[in-house]
Amino acid sequence: MRVEERLARRGGWVELLRPFSIAYGVLVALHGKLHDKQLLPHTRLEAPVVSVGNLTVGGTGKTPMVVFLARELSARDFVPGVLSRGYSRGKHLGEGELNDEGRLLARMLPSVPQVQRADRVSGGTELIGQGCDVLLLDDGFQHRRLERDLDLVLVDATRPWGLAPVGTGAAVKSILPRGLLRESPTTLARADALVLTRCDQVSEEELASLEAELEKDALGVPRLLAEHRPARLVRLGDSETEGLDSLAGAEVELVSAIGNPAAFERSVELLGAKVVKHHVKPDHYEWSAKDLDCVGSKRVITTAKDAVKLEALGDVAARYEVLEIELVLTRGESVLTAMLDSMPESRARRERNNLHEGLHG
Known about the structure:
This protein is α/β, with parallel strands linked by helices. It has helices at residues 3-7, 18-36, 62-75, 89-92, 100-108, 120-129, 204-217, 261-270, 304-310, 333-341, 347-360; strands at residues 49-54, 80-84, 114-116, 134-138, 150-156, 193-197, 223-235, 241-242, 251-256, 274-280, 299-303, 321-331. Helix content is 32%, strand content 21%.
């Protein structure tokens, strides 16, 4: 049982964590107040920063959102760079190597530079030195040291507070370590916009209830709706594609090590497949050949994030298929367009534009 599955259940030893959640919440709130009053250092870089973050530990779909934004900014003649901490990178990889999310971004955005570093200020400075004139700060909502020009916060509609509901009861809504909230939901009020992801996986009633709750916590903050739609099915380590309709009626096994495996399973089921088994590991898990010994002879589907690790295992996972997902905004695209169009220019971008105007003149 994954940690979040145990935390989602009420009663038992996990309730002993509540005092620690209260203490942690007080510390986080105090830290936020110090930032609000400018009593902690803030740094503004010489390029605009767009933060893509969330309120919880676990997957809300930030990587597809970063890809979406990078392409939107590139279409506006910006030169984006991706800046992240690179969670778990240091455990398995050497200096300069990317973690699984970074490798996935590199595959999807081959021309977009990336820096993964705990010190986001020095990482951002490096990206600017590489010619980037806008920075996408991945998982940056709580990293307030770095000033940002646009703060986008993703809320997973299937489990907005980090934990899924168990049975007929409401989901546990608690700060770490009892729950998966990094800070109080009231801090959503400092966001420029909320992006509700995986809206297609909940009912209209559930979505309306969530929006009402978010309106209380973040009064007046724009809410955009998005879906994580299956885009294509490809052979692991190959560009050969399978039609998504080929999953209709198929019995499949799933292999995943992501923040929200239930959402991945639901995406496969919505394509008409019958999931007979789901082999789940913790987020960012590094697969070994031995881990896959229990995978049967059924058709095997995995995620794009897992694919960058599984393909290194060669023939062991060669028959697996990768379900690639893309983010599609279903409401609020004009709001985001206006925000991106109003982004300030970096000094490098102004100089480049002035040079182009001089050449044309």
